[in-house]
Amino acid sequence: MEPVVRTQGLTKDYGPVLALDSLDLEIGPGITGLVGANGAGKSTLLKILLGLVPATGGRAQVLGHDIASDGPAIRAAVGYLPEHDCLPPDVSASDFVVHMAMMSGLPRVAARERAAEVLRHVGLAEERYRPMGGYSTGMKQKAKLAQALAHDPRLVLLDEPTNGLDPAAREEMLGLVQRIGRDFGIAVIVTSHLLGELERVSDHVVVLDGGRLLRASRTDEFLDATGVLLVEVLGDDAQARMVAALSLAGVTTAPRGAMLTVDAAAGERDVHDLIRDTASDLGLGLVRLQVDHRHIEDVFADGSGAVTQPSADPREVTHD
Ligand SMILES: Nc1ncnc2c1ncn2[C@@H]1O[C@H](COP(=O)(O)OP(=O)(O)OP(=O)(O)O)[C@@H](O)[C@H]1O
């Protein structure tokens, strides 16, 4: 499938600060989470793709258009939710989105219809007629999302759309991101400095670290089983008795909070049965027995400084 974004050796320095360091990347359709700690280069990458900031080296194409020569064509096909507050406080969301739609070339009547539609999609109802200066952070993020969708883009770049939101608003925003990608079929690149946040909604994850590509792969490949089972047992001295019995059976365990991790390298099914039988023999209640999964954070814990090529087997990490 044709990538929506491709970069070759893309580099950006702000004087002495190297924000992007020779980045080779391919991003396909669907929802892609672009994650990395603060300062990893996420916002810089999005701004370069839009032509808002010039690269200092390398090349990039967005939807087949070259960023060096086709900026207007890219901006016509791409929606952008910027990270920082950029909304005029005295203007209503409704007027703002109509204005943005007209700026993108829609006639006034079509712009009004489109604005009403996207504001409804993002869940801004009556408030859309109020000046945005009085909005909560969640409402402001929704207004920013609505303007990103106003001109019916093929790709949206969402820079930290959940930043500053409380847990309920964060969930709502992630739900909207998911709908844009899955229900509307728009390609989405969404950034977050919370590494695990996008696991649930993204099809692919790209991890940046210090302006370099740390890893790019399908989200489910990040979450591969680790070969470890998580076990929780209840009863008198339950953990210690379980550890003793399992180690007699030659199985390695380690405590993790109220739970035990059990190495299932011997064969997940066999160890699964062994745990169940052992708990039963000891008269302990088996509260939890599940496969442990990796999380995106584990990539930073395991492989800092490691780089994979996006086209290569994403599980194969080559060290510098
Ligand atoms: N206009 C600028 N002038 C100088 N340095 C900058 C500028 N913009 C970004 N930087 C630096 O470039 C690096 C990458 O910043 P960038 O904003 O792209 O990272 P980020 O991953 O989006 O992080 P954040 O979530 O904190 O914005 C950082 O070290 C940042 O301080």
From TrEMBL:
Q: Which domain of life is it from?
A: Bacteria
Question: What is the protein named?
Answer: ABC transporter ATP-binding protein
Query: SMART domains given for it?
Result: AAA
Protein family according to the UniProt entry: Belongs to the ABC transporter superfamily.
- Gene3D superfamilies recorded for this chain? P-loop containing nucleotide triphosphate hydrolases
Q: In the UniProt record, does the keyword Transmembrane helix occur?
A: no
Q: Which SUPFAM superfamilies match?
A: P-loop containing nucleoside triphosphate hydrolases
MF terms (GO), sorted A to Z: ATP binding; ATP hydrolysis activity
User: Which UniProt keywords are given for this protein, alphabetically ordered?
Assistant: ATP-binding, Nucleotide-binding, Transport
All copies of domain ABC transporter, residue ranges: 5-235
Q: What PANTHER family does its record include?
A: ABC TRANSPORTER, ATP-BINDING PROTEIN
